[in-house]
Amino acid sequence: MLKRPLVEFAMVIFMPKKIWIPNLDDLGPSFDPDIASAAESRYLWFLNEGDLAVLSRATSDSFLKYLSKFIPSLASENILFPISTKSGERKLKLVNSILADRSLLQKLKELAKQRTDLYLASYIASPSILQLSEVTGIPLDPLQMPTRPFISGGLTYVFNSKSKMKLVANELAIPFIAYSVANSYIELEKSVYQLIKSHNPHKLILKKALSGGGHGNYSGTPENVLSIAQTWYREECEVAEEILIEPYMNFKEIIGALAYVSEDNIYFHGIDKQLIENDGWSGMIYPYINEKWGEQIKNWTLKFASRLQNAGGRGWFNLDFATYLDSKGCEQVVFMESNFRCNGFALMLEIAKKTQQKGRIYYSSTLKKEQGNCFLLDEYSSQYVSFEH
């Protein structure tokens, strides 16, 4: 039986001032930039007193004033914008737009010279973040960011890839859902027809290997998924995108696990019950107790986290597992995917810490303000996080 405190946080000796880059648009080759920029404001919850953030989208003074109740001294002066944002253009990803803005780069370089306690941190440790660190002279935050060899070696995307992490699961003898991988429409079509021939499934699910929040998932009949795949593999796509093809399964539960990985330690923060809608994440309940699988999920999470730590990974590490009934009616649990970034689970714990809440966390995309003790998630979605005492 797995028992955890209601809210538990990794102990940190010091809290360096940081420049925070919520680069959600670096998550995958086709992750929707509009979804990425709309979600940026919720990741301002990761700021601490004295931190700066660079956004691709303007944030209102009213929302910053709201956040300042929980983050001391937060004001519009703490938010910087690349010139492409100021002019209303959206041609480059967030980090690339910073690199293209000479004035902003100069300001960051001057800050690096003035403050020895300044670090760079981001939503995901992309190679462009490493480049930004090198250009500005601002070191990566050692508490929140992986090592430089980890990033330059492409390991960020290994530990975020739905396909590559199944290979890791196989090495660790952790069960996972059967799948095939396609890098083109022709390969995907072939895989679908092979599944039809061998299992004749009524429903399949496609998953973009690098995506988040369920935005890269699509389920339907074989005919439906082939139709949507044609739009995914459009001719003008600059990057060949890897897509997983899996049989659609009626899961009993989807359970998330969260760990914080430092150089010397792995902090396990427990598990949550995920709320799923339209094949994507729509909320969570934490803490959550699963009498049958809780300890197993914890052990598997620590195995994955140890592999990450040994490779040089540092920061939040979220893994998803699912339970289902097999052909004999016996309940089983399998690994689904991992999120090595400032994921939604970590965000909810950060909001709990900032608002000094110790009750049960409940978040749903349909949650109304009047339900429980609520806090506004971001500026644009009108969604709230609730704490039940």
Concise account of the structure shown:
This protein is an alpha+beta fold and 389 residues long. The protein has 13 helices and 16 strands. It has three domains: 17-142, Rossmann fold; 178-247, Dna Ligase, domain 1 (2-Layer Sandwich), CATH 3.30.1490.20; 253-388, D-amino Acid Aminotransferase, Chain A, domain 1 (2-Layer Sandwich), CATH 3.30.470.
How does this model look, in words?
This protein has 389 residues and is of the alpha+beta class. The protein folds into three domains: 17-142, Rossmann fold (3-Layer(aba) Sandwich), CATH 3.40.50; 178-247, ATP-grasp fold, A domain (Dna Ligase, domain 1, 2-Layer Sandwich); 253-388, 2-Layer Sandwich (D-amino Acid Aminotransferase, Chain A, domain 1). 31% of the residues lie in helices and 24% in strands. It contains 13 helices and 16 strands. The strands form three sheets. It has an eight-stranded antiparallel β-sheet, with helices on both faces. It has a four-stranded parallel β-sheet with strand order 3-2-1-4. Strand 6 (204-208) and strand 7 form a beta hairpin. Helix 10 (185-199) packs antiparallel against helix 11 (222-232). The longest helix has 18 residues, at 294-311. It is globular, with a radius of gyration of 21 Å. The two termini are 23 Å apart.
